[in-house]
Design a protein that fits this description.
CATH architecture of the largest domain: Up-down Bundle
InterPro entries: Cation_efflux, Cation_efflux_CTD, Cation_efflux_CTD_sf, Cation_efflux_TM, Cation_efflux_TMD_sf, CDF_Transporter
CATH class of the largest domain: Mainly Alpha
Shape: elongated
Distance between the termini: 38 Å
CATH topology of the largest domain: Alpha-lytic protease prodomain-like
Helix content: 55-70%
Membrane topology: Multi-pass membrane protein
Order of helices and strands: HHHHHHHHEEHEHEEHE
Protein name: Cation transporter
Oligomer: single chain
Number of strands: 6
Keywords: Membrane, Transmembrane, Transmembrane helix, Transport
Subcellular location: Membrane
Amino acid sequence: MKSIFDFLIRKFVKDHKNVSSQSVRQSYGTLGGNVGIIINSSILILEIVIGLFLNSIAITADAFHNLTDALSSLVTIFSFKLANRPADDKHPFGYGRIEYITAFLFSCAILVVGFEFLRSSFLRVLHPVTIPFDKVSFICMLCAIPLQIFLNRFTNYIGNVIDSSALKASALESFTDILVLSMVTFSLLITKFTTFPIDGYIGLIVSLFILHSGIELGREMLGTIIGKAPEKEFVEELKSSVISYKYICGVHDLVIHNYGPGRYMASLHAEVPSNISIMELHDIIDKAEKEIGKRMNVYLSIHMDPINTDSPEITALKEVVYEKIKVIKGILSMHDFRVVGKSEEKTILFDVVLDKTSFKDSEKKELQAQIQDIIYSINPSYRSIITFDREFY
């Protein structure tokens, strides 16, 4: 089946390997939407004819489910067209998040169909109707299942190729369609062997599947729209890439914004030696921003944080302080360690990164006092100024 998918992609998507291109992504989305319209419309017509002929609530309801799917495919094409619009004054990072909104709308559509299916099936249980078995109708319904399987696997395939939330959401919806269609077809077969009114009960079971899929999809997409943490693999690759450049010895205050699939904006602080020429460091930072940004498809902004790497005394003190505070549960790291003053009464300044869930705001004063006591135990003449940070990934 993969060979068929690749054939369709090569046939209808120009420059199909350049998946970072927004125009190529739009072509993938249009292809997925058109295949969805063709298959769902075919099954829709088939089920309406059979459902009305047999007076089956399960088959008729699934027909309207496929009508929703066909309309969703239209929305997919429309959303990719909108998402491909270039950035403008009002939206400087483009319209890529429309894909997430489309996926969320899919979840809403699934929930509407699920509730309607649940209501209709419950009424059919209360007022059962005998469904006659028809061999031709059964064979037609059976032939529709491979079409749904093809649509599910194809949509999921191209969704993974371009990492599209909208297409992955559509694939999840089509997987539900496979379950629905299989159970409806099975219920039609059962009517040949029993007079039990299974039509309504099968409808109830299928509607629960639909509702569960809609809730899970909606929860995931709503989290993305609100602003969920980026993938850990992406974060680690970005950090290690920055540190690989000459003179950069640490990274912190990393913030990543997602403006749609393949559209990231990231800012971070890079620790660099204070005794190196600013112009030389600027050239290195500028090179890192451009090279990493192009390779990882991210708009990257790096702020330089100079640190003293020449003083063995400061380096040793930093190691001692970190060894003592890292045992406190909830402290992840320490950065921007500076020492101000040349007399015995020095002031130590540093930032402490806290776990997102370990400390409430009301507990930070107590934590600050605890760390200050640690500094005092190292040398009573030292003052300390501590800033608490958190990770945004």
